Amino acid sequence: MKIEKGNIDLSKKYLIETWGCQMNEEDSEKLAGMLRSMGYESTMFRNKADVIIFNTCAVRENAELKVYGNIGALKALKRENPDMILAVCGCMMQQKGMPEEILRKYKHVDIVFGTHNAHKFPEYLERARTENAQICEIYEKETEIVEGIPIVRDSSVKAFVTITYGCDNFCTFCVVPYVRGRERSRKPQDILSEVRDLVSKGYKEVTLLGQNVNSYGYNLQEKVTFSELLRMVNEVEGLERIRFMSPHPKDLKEDVIEAVRDCEKVVEQIHLPVQSGSTALLKRMNRNYTRENYLDIVKKIKEAIPGVALTTDIIIGFPGETEEDFMETLKLVEEVKYDSAYTFIYSRRKYTPADRMKEQVPEDVKHERFNRLVEAVNKNSIEINKSYQDQVVEILVEGKSKNNDEYLQGRTRTGKTVNFPGDEVLVGKLVQVKITKARSFSLMGELVQ
Ligand code: SF4
């Protein structure tokens, strides 16, 4: 019997749902790349998917609970479509006992794998199709960096380029070193060839990604510093903008500040996670800098890079945080005047030293401090956004605005989101936009001809 394709879509479909940080996003882009090269196409609908992957995050309890809920919710779908393959991967799976628990509780999960062996997904998929058993493989330790995995990216304008994997810092609240392994740097030639390849495909902006980008290269055979890497990427012809995240304050030295100042493609925005404004708490967090060290770096950055936008991460309610510690954080926020901040309420994570600390802060105290912090952060953001009023700024157009089809969306060099009326042909272009209205979290504007 011959089947005419006609308008019937016979291709196999995949759906990847991702929780967590850019590292997980990047892993999902690689999983999508592998699936594409196996002939799969993406779908947004669970009931149309032949393969569903949940890429999980272990950093916060909330994200974990969502994963459990989502796996449970797929049981009925799997009953209706037993051929559908459900895979669960990511940081949660690197935690002791977690894969076994997932497989025991959720018999409809077909594949479980971890962060160090995602490159083996095609093999697991093949086995899941042919073997009548749940497939589970977790590597305890990180492997050599695997290059050349195909990547399907969300945007056609900007891309994340990983420069380091893992982390050696062991902040006492964080599971990353346990679930992502020790720090490894990619070779500069591999990074540069990825960036050149992106430019040849029309990409205009890259974000160099690592848990601590400043320590890039120290473990390479031929040592290259992060500032040297920035200068190399700056030489790539056709590339317009370079961002990076995140530097660790303890390792951000003058050479990096000078590279940001000197390299015209490196934008005037630095994300510098502070976590707390109290030296006593920073010590308990094992951050290896003091409040004074941090403020000194901020001063140097502001002197060297006029108009720089600073953003940060702050944790509220870390074990032992007193009202005085919290006030130190609040004062620091007011002093630095961040453009924006990712603010988090401390969440206990199994196996971390902070989880074993006795002085856990009561939930109501955490929430009350959190609200005061958010108010202070937002006040700064709004003030800074208002200072853009009537200015003409360079925008890299990233796509259509999310809320209005006739508007485009892009970002300033300082990372501000700007919406303005315009034609889609401008996507991927640098344009001049006059800011007409400042909102709390974005700006409105009009094209300058
Ligand atoms: S630097 Fe600290 S917070 Fe960042 S990933 Fe490493 S251990 Fe976690």
From TrEMBL:
UniProt xrefs under InterPro entries: Elp3/MiaA/NifB-like_rSAM, Methylthiotransferase, Methylthiotransferase_CS, Methylthiotransferase_N, Methylthiotransferase_N_sf, MiaB_methiolase, Rhodanese-like_dom, rSAM
Gene encoding the protein: miaB
Keyword Ribonucleoprotein: no
Binding positions for [4Fe-4S] cluster 1 per the UniProt entry: 21, 57, 91
Pfam families, per database record: Radical_SAM (PF04055), TRAM (PF01938), UPF0004 (PF00919)
Protein purpose: Catalyzes the methylthiolation of N6-(dimethylallyl)adenosine (i(6)A), leading to the formation of 2-methylthio-N6-(dimethylallyl)adenosine (ms(2)i(6)A) at position 37 in tRNAs that read codons beginning with uridine.
Cofactor binding note: Binds 2 [4Fe-4S] clusters. One cluster is coordinated with 3 cysteines and an exchangeable S-adenosyl-L-methionine.
Domain called Radical SAM core: residue spans: 153-383
PROSITE patterns, sorted: MTTASE_N, MTTASE_RADICAL, RADICAL_SAM, RHODANESE_3, TRAM
Protein name, per record: tRNA-2-methylthio-N(6)-dimethylallyladenosine synthase
PANTHER family hit by this protein: CDK5 REGULATORY SUBUNIT-ASSOCIATED PROTEIN 1 (PTHR43020), MITOCHONDRIAL TRNA METHYLTHIOTRANSFERASE CDK5RAP1 (PTHR43020:SF2)
Record's keyword annotation contains Ubl conjugation: no
